[in-house]
Amino acid sequence: MAPKHSLIAAVRTGLRELANPDKAPDMQAYMKSEMPYLGVQKPARKTVEKAVFAAHVIAEPADWVDTVLTLWRDATYREERYIAIDLSGDRRYAAWQNSGLLPMYDELIVTGAWWDYVDEIANRRIGPLLRAEPLVLKPIMLKWSVDADRWRRRTSIICQLASKAATDTDLLASCIEANVDDPDFFLRKGIGWALREYAKTDPAWVRGFVAAHPGLSGLSKREAMKHL
């Protein structure tokens, strides 16, 4: 295994060329981030990614994982971590997406420990793996739903945001019920978000779930019933 050092160097160079010191402090303050920003907003960041990913294609799955993790672990600026997450979902490597990547995604969730990282991974990485390999992922999500780490718990709750009719309602209910009494804002918001999204597919199920769970926080209920 070896990280693609040319890709990592090109990412850093591209970001620094677009750095905007005037925007960086506001971006850092908004995200309440200890790690500083370069001030590169999403459209510009995507431009860097598109060019760099095309010019530095990775040939082996193990090298791809190592590149993602090296870019993540050695990041000096938050934009580098955003690009590490995007690299983990790049279409060129779609065939390599399987449950064997869970240790990588788990590291990003636990060490990232903030919603901007976690929500992307939960929805766009863990969710598709759950739909592809439910027998493997479901027990892990149930375990995460009662984990000491709140970001694993949030992941278990919101990982089915895009599942629509493929939503495992037993899993969704179990992950929510495991966290109903937790006062944490991100868990309560995540519960409401998950229910609100599923309400677009099965509003009757969501209405019934909310009615059957009077212990849901006001925040969770408001979010769940927002469009009902």
Task: Reconstruct the topology from this structure.
Blueprint: H1 5-17, H2 24-31, H3 42-55, H4 61-73, H5 78-88, H6 102-112, H7 115-132, H8 134-144, H9 150-158, H10 169-177, H11 185-199, H12 203-212, H13 218-224
Q: What can you see in these coordinates?
A:
The chain is mainly α. Helix content is 65%, strand content 0%. The protein contains 13 helices and no strands. α11 packs antiparallel against α12 (203-212). The chain is globular. The chain starts with a helix and ends with a helix. The model has no long low-confidence stretch (mean pLDDT 97).
SSE succession: HHHHHHHHHHHHH
- The pLDDT mean sits at 97
- In angstroms, what is the radius of gyration? 19 Å
How many individual helices? 13
* Major sheet summary line: none
State the oligomer: single chain
Distance between the termini: 50 Å
Low-confidence stretches: none
Helix fraction by DSSP (H/I, runs of at least 4): 55-70%
Strand content is under 5%
Q: Which class do the helix and strand fractions yield?
A: mainly alpha
- Count the E strands: 0
Note the overall shape. Answer: globular
Kindly summarize this structure in a few lines.
This protein is mostly helical and 228 residues long. It has helices at 5-17, 24-31, 42-55, 61-73, 78-88, 102-112, 115-132, 134-144, 150-158, 169-177, 185-199, 203-212, 218-224. It is globular.
